[in-house]
């Protein structure tokens, strides 16, 4: 399954070799909202009906191809249980992007997501790109959080927002692509150590990842 939406995400074949930028992305949200399922769907194109709870955090990589840049995500999927909350800053510290996930059928997880956003805006990299993902759109008949309510909150908080479904793959690749497009790709000359602000330009051959699907159908 392609990891892009539409031909605009294909690299421009008439240009020079793609620039490769690496960014750290962290997923945050309450337990059982589907964070691990979203990552698994994005990275491997798979879905597991019974996903075990993450302990601590899991690490995966995947790439997204934009017009002249290949964005390599280092993805940290954090545990949602309250007992792991104190570990979260260790994972979002230095992250250039975050996807905060809630379950559209559970109002409490939406309120918890707003707390995560506040924490990121207060303690994380000031330039962090934050996306809000309302997961489990495949069971919208059980909806407890209206799309308009979440959209209004996202607009007021300057967040990207999409409703997703790890089960049916709706908007899963799209939310990661939207984040990739918002990230700064320029690498200041003569300035090393800019990873927390603009990402790392790997400047080498195609990155290794768990089955990058972004550049081909």
From TrEMBL:
UniProt topology in membrane: Lipid-anchor
Record-linked SUPFAM superfamilies: P-loop containing nucleoside triphosphate hydrolases (SSF52540)
Any one GO BP annotation for this protein: protein transport
Catalytic reactions of this protein: GTP + H2O = GDP + phosphate + H(+)
Its EC number(s): 3.6.5.2
Entry annotated with the keyword Hydrolase: yes
Keywords tagged on the record: Endosome, GTP-binding, Hydrolase, Lipoprotein, Nucleotide-binding, Prenylation, Protein transport, Transport
GO CC annotations on file: early endosome membrane; plasma membrane
EC main group: hydrolase
Bias (Polar residues) ranges: 201-217
Pfam families attached to this UniProt entry: Ras
GO molecular function: G protein activity; GTP binding
Spans annotated as Disordered: 185-217
PANTHER family, per the entry: PTHR47978
Family: Belongs to the small GTPase superfamily. Rab family.
Protein name: small monomeric GTPase
Gene name of this polypeptide: RAB5C
């Amino acid at each position: 399954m392609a990891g892009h939406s539409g031909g605009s995400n294909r690299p421009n074949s008439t240009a020079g070799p793609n620039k490769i930028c690496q960014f750290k992305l962290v997923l945050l949200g309450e337990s059982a909202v589907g964070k691990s399922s979203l990552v698994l769907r994005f990275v491997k194109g798979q879905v597991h009906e019974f996903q075990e709870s993450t302990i601590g955090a899991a690490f995966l990589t995947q790439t997204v191809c934009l017009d002249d840049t290949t964005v390599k995500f280092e993805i940290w999927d954090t545990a949602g249980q309250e007992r792991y909350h104190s570990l979260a800053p260790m994972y979002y510290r230095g992250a250039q992007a975050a996807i905060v996930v809630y379950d559209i059928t559970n109002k409490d997880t939406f309120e918890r997501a707003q707390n995560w956003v506040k924490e990121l805006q207060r303690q994380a990299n000031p330039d962090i790109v934050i996306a809000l993902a309302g997961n489990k759109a495949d069971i919208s008949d059980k909806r407890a959080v209206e799309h308009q309510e979440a959209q209004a909150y996202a607009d007021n908080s300057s967040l990207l927002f999409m409703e997703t479904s790890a089960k049916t793959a709706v908007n899963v690749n799209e939310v990661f692509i939207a984040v990739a497009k918002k990230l700064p790709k320029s690498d200041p000359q003569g300035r090393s150590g800019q990873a927390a602000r603009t990402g790392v330009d790997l400047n080498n051959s195609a990155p290794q990842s768990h089955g990058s699907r972004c550049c081909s159908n």
